[in-house]
Amino acid sequence: MKDIFIGSKETVLYPTSSCFRVILQKGAYEIKAHWHPGIEIIMPLSGNYRAFLGEEQIQLEKGDVLFLHSATIHALSGPSEGVRLIFQFDTELLYSLKEFQSLLFSFPSFLFLQRSRGTSIYPHVQRILLKIIQEYRHQNLLWEARLYSLVLELYTLLFRSPLLQLQALGNTSAASSLLQNRRSQEKFLSVCQYINQNLTSDMDLETAACQAGFSKFYFSRLFRDFVGISFSQYVTKQRIHKAKLLLLTTDASVTDIALESGFNSSSTFNRCFYSETHMSPTVFRQKHARLRD
């Protein structure tokens, strides 16, 4: 099965009438920096693998799992020996569910689970991925429906995991301390989820503080301690992240994207976008035009 590259964009060719692609990749493999709209999950079954994400390099050993979110630019390198699971699926499978829509925009560009770390969710993730291989190989009746249910199970597990929230919050020491306390963890993560689900509303600090059950001033200090930035900065970053994905993956106008990302005007959106990326939304889209069909 071939891949089609236009600039740095990979067009994933799924099997006919399918939204899933499973590859058991063997032997040496090198692929240049690229991205694709779909989600990709990589797990070496034997040997190792290297992933290059900007300036960061990740060494995957047997059993490690790397989640690459939609539109993440990455390069891959595998040795002459070894077998790796490459699982790709259409992002629309998750975006079609309202409950997932806002959460996906807070998903980090990548999530790395190391087998040696022994995190509580790792055995469940590995079990689901091995079931995906089995279903794809045999393709019994309703195998695609089964893959869809496994993807939903997998991402429900991830979104309920403190590990994902730690990466989204920047993995600060304060956040790590917070997540050791289950009651505090659930309360604070529910606030982050509330923020991500309400990016298009006129959300303010007082509303979020009320959601958490804290005073506005205490919540403001707590939020900065745990996340490392202020509440308003966090909301703006989440909105800009959502806008970037929409600029890359849709043909919507800048004005429509501004409103869909939670900005109340194009001028505010342009100013915030420039402050974050040092270019306008239009220039950002033009610069990445080679990545689009």
Automatic annotation (TrEMBL):
Alphabetical keyword list: DNA-binding, Transcription, Transcription regulation
Q: Which residues form the HTH araC/xylS-type domain?
A: 189-287
Transmembrane spans: none
One example of the protein's molecular function in GO is: DNA-binding transcription factor activity
* Source organism, top-level taxon: Bacteria
Pfam families of this UniProt entry?
Cupin_2 (PF07883), HTH_18 (PF12833)
* KW DNA damage (keyword) present: no
Q: Does the keyword Transcription apply?
A: yes
InterPro entries recorded: Cupin_2 (IPR013096), Homeodomain-like_sf (IPR009057), HTH-like (IPR037923), HTH_AraC (IPR018060), RmlC-like_jellyroll (IPR014710)
Q: What's the protein called, per UniProt? A: AraC family transcriptional regulator
Q: What is the scientific name of the source organism?
A: Candidatus Blautia merdavium
Query: Where is the organism placed in the taxonomic lineage, from the top?
Result: Bacteria, Bacillati, Bacillota, Clostridia, Lachnospirales
